[in-house]
Amino acid sequence: CRTNLKPDRGTGLLYYHVCYGLSETGGLTIVTGKQNWERHAVRCCEQLAKWWNDGKVMAHAGFPNGLGTTATEIEKQIVNDSDETRRRLMIVYKNTLIGEMSFYVYENAKYEIGIKICEFDYQEKGLGKIVLSMLIEELFHMGAQLIFLDTNLNNTRAQHVYEKLGFKRIAIHCDSWKNQLGELQSTVDYELTKGDFCNFKNR
C-alpha cells in the first residue's frame, strides 16, 4: 500500500499526515483525519524534545550531550514544513512512538533522508529497513531521481542497513568535523537510485 504525504493546509503541525505506522504483519498504516490533531502534535514535539535532549540517542549525530531544546522550539521549526521543502516523520509501531525520519528536497529531484530508531528496545529488530523502504518507495513515487544520506563512520549498523536497501557508498570523509565534545568525526556518503532500490516493505 502507498502513503499520502499531502498535508491538510489548515492543521499547521501535520501530525496525522506525517506519522507512519507498522501493523503487526509489517504492512503500512497511516493515520488521517483532523480530530484532536493538536493533542497529538504536542505529543510528537514533546517526544522529539525528549529524544533530541538524550545524549545516547544523539551521539552518532554529534551531540553526546543532547541538543537542549524544547517542544515549543521544535514546533516552531517544523510548522511550515511542506512536501516541497522538508518533512519530519514520526515512526509509530504498535501505537508507540519509537523514532523519526526526515526528508529534505533539493534541486534536480534530489532528496536527502535521515532516520533514528530512538527507543533502544526497538533497535536491531529489522524495523529500520522496513520503514525506510516505505519512505523511499514514496519519495520515488513523488518524483525523486536520487536519494542520498550520510552517516557516522562508526555507525556500522546503519551502514549495513543502507547497503541492504541498495545504497552505494560514494565517499568517506575522514576527520571532517567535530562533535559537541570537540572530538574529530568521520562520515560516509551514500546515494540510491530507483534501479538499485531493494524494497523490504513486504518482507
Distance between the first and last residues' Cα: 13 Å
Low-confidence stretches: 1-37
How does the overall form come out from the CA principal axes?
globular
Mean pLDDT: 82
With strands numbered from the N-terminus, the spatial order across the biggest sheet is 2-1-3-4-5-6-8-7
Residue fraction in strands = 25-35%
Q: Could you give the order of the helices and strands?
A: EEHHHEEEHEHEE
Number of strands: 8
Structural class by sheet pairing and helices: alpha+beta
Our count of helices gives 5
Helical content class: 25-40%
C-alpha Rg, in Å?
16 Å
Give a quick account of the main beta sheet: strands, pairing sense, barrel closure.
Answer: 8 strands, mixed
Short descriptors:
alpha+beta; 8 strands; 5 helices; 203 residues; 8-stranded mixed β-sheet
Describe this structure in words.
With 203 residues, the chain is of the alpha+beta class. It contains 5 helices and 8 strands. Strand 3 and strand 4 form a beta hairpin. Helix 1 (37-52) crosses helix 3.
Question: What's the quick description here?
Answer:
It is built from 5 helices and 8 strands, in the order ββαααβββαβαββ. The chain has helices spanning 37-52, 55-58, 71-78, 127-141, 156-164; strands at 19-22, 28-30, 86-93, 96-106, 110-117, 146-152, 168-178, 184-192.
Helix/strand layout:
Layout: E1 19-22, E2 28-30, H1 37-52, H2 55-58, H3 71-78, E3 86-93, E4 96-106, E5 110-117, H4 127-141, E6 146-152, H5 156-164, E7 168-178, E8 184-192
Helix pairs in contact: 1-3
